[in-house]
Amino acid sequence: MAKTTRVLSVSVPVSDVDAALAFYTDVLGCELLMDVEAWPGARYVEVLPPGSSVGIVLLPHDSEIPIAVRLGTSDAEEAHARIKASGVELHNEEVLRWETVPPMFSFTDPDGNALVYLEDAGDSTQGE
Fold first, then answer.
1. 3-state secondary structure of 23
2. CB 30 within 8 Å of CB 48
3. Residue 49 burial class via C-beta count within 10 angstroms: exposed 0-12, middle 13-18, buried 19 and up
4. Whole-prediction pTM value?
5. What is the C-alpha to C-alpha distance for residues 63 and 103, in angstroms, rounded to an integer?
6. Strand ranges of the sheet holding 55-60, from the earlier edge strand across to the other edge
7. Could you report how far apart the first and last alpha carbons of the chain are, in Å?
8. Dihedral sign, CA of 36, 41, 44, 45?
9. Residue 110 DSSP code
């Protein structure tokens, strides 16, 4: 059975991505991991606090990218089927597969919190 392997990142909603990026890198000392346009008009900025393996994703309040906790899973397809069978609200009818990112999908926990599962090739022993 696929399981959660680890927390990959958490999102923080921000009013100004550039100002937030400056604060997290210049003031807090985070390292910039990624600053890309995920698709036209959707900027994805991720920083990593010193000594942490969990990234912080800086997203505008109105981002099309989910403001969510991103979790690793050992098998995105199996996890999607299991979560769908449990009756949890899925935001993707199937696992999303894009060339530059691992297979993923998003869903909501029973309290309405957004979660994203990404197939994780990292240390699968974490979270056991």
1. helix
2. yes
3. middle
4. 0.85
5. 20
6. 31-39, 42-48, 55-60, 4-14, 69-73, 114-119, 104-108
7. 13
8. positive
9. T
